[in-house]
Amino acid sequence: MSPSQTNKFGPKGLFGSYGAGIGAPLELAVEAPGVECFQLHVPEEKDLTPDWANRVKELIEPRGIQIARFVIGYSGPEGDQYDSPQRVLETVGFGVPDHQKRKARLELTKKYIRFGHEYLGVKDFNAHLGHVDPNNEFFNPMVEAVQECCDLTASWGGHYDVETGPEKFEALHAFMKKVNRPGVFRVNLDLANIVLYHGEWEPITFLRKLLDAGLEIGGVHLKDAIPTTCNPSLQQWNGEEVHPGQGMVNFPLLLKTLFESGYRDAIVVEREVLGENGLQKVRRMAETLTWVYNLCRDIERAFAA
User: Fold this and answer.
1) Which CATH architecture has domain 12-304?
2) pLDDT, tens digit, for every residue of 173-187?
């Protein structure tokens, strides 16, 4: 969407989950002030039922809340593991070296996509890629799996996006060019992940590289982190997540840069701070959401002047 079509950001909300996933508990998060949308983590496969979808709709529809996108992940002991960056490379997404597991995940992903669109009207989806390396034998099968997901969502005008994670900019750019689904395969931006994986002390540079390369931003996770070293190890996370505004992500500059680029889609707060219960997580995310509203308002006013 071009800047001439609207002078405001899109809906603002939270990353939530219902029954499974890492998001804010939906049944609590719907009560947070100012929530206009959710990025909603997919449920476990056993919960892909009309009943699950109806319970979600009963929570969001009376409040006028929309689902901006489904966030796809794989649960269980054979699912995604985030104990360390090394475990991410070994277990997450389509980057797994087990061809049969990748095929099974592709079929499950398409099942999630069809379910989200049919039962909840979701158009857009995103996921982590996992291990991206053109020298691996599973690189081309990864490309083909993502292409299938893109083509499925494109059939109704939707998108399948990659969330920034362990891949460096150059690897992400090359993979997206290889997939070759412009306008469908976009980036869901999470600059805190760039800090935690790569030890970036100025993560806004990553966003500028994306934009300079002509890559489209399809979604945003507002999250913050502080790195611990300039020489990250795959064996442990390079830092820790912190409350937004207390880490390395310059949120006023992030939002300004996005607005200048023409981004007008949803702004979503994510939080994965360890040790918090659901209510604590929602309360802290609600604080951040209020701050985000103020930041967005100031940017919108500045560009309207």
Assistant:
1) Alpha-Beta Barrel (3.20)
2) 999 999 999 999 999
